[in-house]
Amino acid sequence: xxxxxxxxxxxxxxxxxxxxxxxxxxxxxxxxxxxxxLAKSNSGPAINFTNTVSSGFVDKxxxxxxxxxxxxxxxxxxxLVQLTNLWSFLSKKFFWSCDSGQSSALRKIEISLYRCFLVxxxxxxxxxKVLEFFEKSSKLLPQYDWGEWYGLxxxxxxxxxxxxAPFFQRAWQETFTISLHNFLNTVFLxxxxxxxxxxxQEAALVLNLRDENFLLxxxxxxxxxxxxxxxxxxxxxxxxxxxxxxxxxxLKELQARGNADVPITDGQSLENPGKTTSKATLVNGFxxxxxxxxxxxxxxxxxxxxxxxxxKSPLTARKNEDVGKQKSGSIPGTTHHQIENGxxxxxxxxxxxxxxxSLPNGSSHRGQRDAQSVGDSLLRSRVSGxxxxxxxSSYSLHHPNSSDPYMILSTDEYSCHSSTVTHCYFSPSGKxxxxxxxxxxxxxxLENSSVxxxxxxxxxxxxxxxxxxxxxxxxxxxxxxxxNDRSVIRLYDVTTSKCIREVETPVTFPVVIGLxxxxxxxxxxxxxxxxxxxxxxxxxxxxKTFQIERQLALSSQNGNVKAxxxxxxxxxxxxxxxCSDGSVRIFDVQQNEQLMHWAxxxxxxxxVSVINVKFSFDDTYIYTMSSxxxxxxxxxxxxxxxxxxxxxxxxxxxxxxxxxHSFPKLFAIDNTNSRFLVPCENGVQILTxxxxxxxxxxxxxxxxxxxAASCLDWAASAxxxxxxxxxxxxxxxxxxxxxx
Length: 740
Description:
The protein is α+β, with helices and mostly antiparallel strands. Among the domains are: about 10-200, Serine Threonine Protein Phosphatase 5, Tetratricopeptide repeat; about 240-395, no CATH class; about 515-645, YVTN repeat-like/Quinoprotein amine dehydrogenase (Methylamine Dehydrogenase, Chain H), CATH 2.130.10.10.
């Protein structure tokens, strides 16, 4: 049963699953043997199930009686280490799913458990164990719950003291035991099955996800092929139309067949008739422009122009007749083709008119018939091309710039917020979006290419304002954290729209301005400020139990520094902080030690804060966004080493912080460290980064004329981008883009 010495993460997880299964079934003797083997192999702290607990099992739920007996026996044996380990194990494996009501009861039960331990130590005369308790557990004990109890070791006859006397009574201890038993019964009624019992369901889920992923890949390839075929049809249609337009040599050949002067056209200059040209510009439905030029004879006088304008030739009359028919919707020479688009009919007649104007005045009837024949054949081909274009793909309605690497497939708008949207975040899987306007949080689902509201929840206190959000990494994207300016952090289940956990921050720092969750889902960082927003604090929480692990020490010359943004590295051992004094700080979370520190801005006499910070996916770089709109790439190994930077224009800086100093997300990065999303003057822009060229603008996406994005995020894969952004309004835009 023993695992290898220094086992890897998988063996540690398996040990936890076996321990969880044994406790669930009530196999306490087997659990005791298993923990003894683990202790011998030095693979982790052992939970000593004392010999007073007999073996047995419960078929459908945990054996609460045996767990309570084990806790009481550890208290009687004054074994603080094993008591703490067992309670931490129960909290991690079973208590994490408690709702907000059970969380407050859990906190009271835990405090009473340790007070019962202290009372038993004092009664047995083990004052050394009392001192050991306060020395080892002082970092985990809230001051407002244990302030009076720190004097217990120095009070003579505490059982006679009014503060401690009620806890030394037998009635209190019996009441606590009953409360502990009832609480465990309540929790275990809804406890999920151990992971070992769910292996078949997990395997089936993995197979289903694999099949679904395969189908989605096939659908994506099909859509990509359809898009390419559509653009190929468009390109071939443009080439066909361009090939059927008469060339300059063909027009000169028609002109050479005539014997008289060419009547002056609209494109001919009266000031300099010797250098006139006739131009007919064709504009098709896809943006193609083709200009036909024909050389005009020299030596025309103004008198000739005026006389020719008064005397109408047969071709001129024919031209006017064509114009009249054009207005009525019919085209000469075409009996089976109708052009419904007025602009296209004008372009089609412009072709024929330019052909007629290129013929000499008074030419032979053969020249007229040739010109008419060429013009009619050209017109028929043009009409045929326009009619065929009406059945092309809808992508032709929005033809992107040929230099853009992505084309826009669709645009969706969210407009259910009652006030300005301040934050928007994609879930880790990219299937959901959470947005907040300060009083309400909406969660949107993007599955199956449709947009629908999945959950909506508001702050329970009408005066509280939601200042930050953070997704908890889970398989189903179901957990979302929020922080407000009333010392409260809440954990929501977005599938049920219910608050399942609530915790209060220290009263000295009531304004929660930032949250950061580790990719493993085990740790949470919260950044708080005082009510005056002068000083700040960063607290590290155990996300399973919501117990405070440690408080990061922020030091500054003037003492007034706040962490405005935070990000964990891949294994949650390091955290990067962007601070209000313009500095970047790297902390070792385990040792609670600041490893690196440097100033992100070298501009003197100008106050610049770091409002966004992000580790690269390989932890070799750190990217920061400053309040003056500068995106910078730093080395994560050499403090202060800058590789490149990109400065946003003044019109691209559009965020509104307000009085709470809570900043939105203003840049996003893909998993290759090569593509970035930042605001631009009319929406958002995609940047690319390389070692040689630094940051370069790859494509701009216009969302709001004259407005830059005030909050943004994206879900980026190799070929598909899904971008969400807002611009100080009560709506969000989501654009789906495909690589060309």
